[in-house]
Predict the 3D structure of the following.
Amino acid sequence: MEQNIKVIQTGELLSHAVSLNHEGYRLVAISATAKEGIELTYSFDKEYDFINLRLEIDADTEVDSISPLYSYAFLYENEIKELFGAKIRNITLDFNNQLYRIPIETPFAKKEEKA
């Protein structure tokens, strides 16, 4: 299957998620990668049609939760928030960085190098 990756702006996430939800797409995964900021990829599927919405955000950018649309998204969002330091607001069940018992705050966040 061909990968369909659509790069979107932060403010477009909810409208795209609403459309996909109404069209019957299910949320497959939300993943994060530490780059210059954080790259978030929201993956959806319907009858083998796989759509990825991709956002590139910096450490200060807030992203709206899609958990009101896809209830189980709260797990992905809590994990990304806690491990990468993404600012995700309005998670339906927010663990407030207590999902994991880890000794390091945001262990996967890209650390700024000191000169």
Observations:
- The chain is about 20% helix and 30% strand.
- The CA atoms of residues 37 and 58 lie 4 Å apart.
